[in-house]
Specification:
Distance between the termini: 66 Å
Strand order of the largest sheet: 1-3-2
Number of helices: 7
Oligomer: single chain
Order of helices and strands: HHHEHHEEHH
Strand content: 5-15%
Helix content: 40-55%
Radius of gyration: 25 Å
Number of domains: 1
Shape: elongated
CATH class: Mainly Alpha
Length: 177
């Protein structure tokens, strides 16, 4: 072993491996909150809400150039899945991700934009069916790749196992105890 002489220098280096993952931002720091949360459940709920806002804001930015909102995109996907028969307003309302107090106005705006068309049922005039127009179908189809890229950008760093766990945990949180 040699001893270090005066004026010698020490070389320090670090190694980063794929085994060590960067820590996710801490919610308290992100919210600039100095006090701890009142409970782990409180922190979890706020974390879910914060994550929802971040994901939703990013998704709304993706849709902005197309002149539609996330809720309108949701309607387009619902109606595409319903097929040629379309759905009545209450069926659309029941399938929306976000509760809407006035689905009629939402559908009015979408009809004015040429994305959907509504027609009364011949046998039962009380039923009004909403269907995608050719333009509405073209738009929702055109967004498929961009939406998938957004999903990958936001959640692609998670493994399949982590994603499955996340989906399962969120489903449990939505279900009553």
């Amino acid at each position: 072993m040699s001893s270090m002489s005066a004026g010698s220098r020490v070389l320090t280096f670090s190694v980063t491996t794929s085994i060590i993952h960067a820590m996710a931002p801490n919610l308290r720091n992100e919210l600039r909150q100095s006090k701890p949360f009142s409970s782990l459940e409180h922190e979890a709920q706020l974390s879910i809400l914060r994550t929802s806002v971040v994901l939703e804001d990013s998704f709304e930015q993706l849709l902005k150039p197309y002149g539609i909102t996330g809720t309108q995109y949701n309607v387009l996907r619902i109606l595409r899945g319903a097929g040629a028969d379309g759905l009545c307003r209450n069926e659309v309302r029941g399938r929306l991700l976000r509760r809407m107090p006035d689905v009629t106005r939402l559908l009015d705006r979408m009809e004015e934009a040429g994305l959907v068309v509504r027609a009364r049922d011949g046998a039962d005039r009380r039923l009004v069916s909403t269907k995608l127009t050719t333009e509405g179908l073209r738009l929702v189809d055109a967004l498929d790749d961009e939406v998938e890229q957004e999903h990958q950008r936001r959640l692609g760093q998670l493994s399949d196992r982590q994603l499955k766990t996340l989906v399962d945990l969120l489903a449990r949180a939505r279900s009553p105890a």
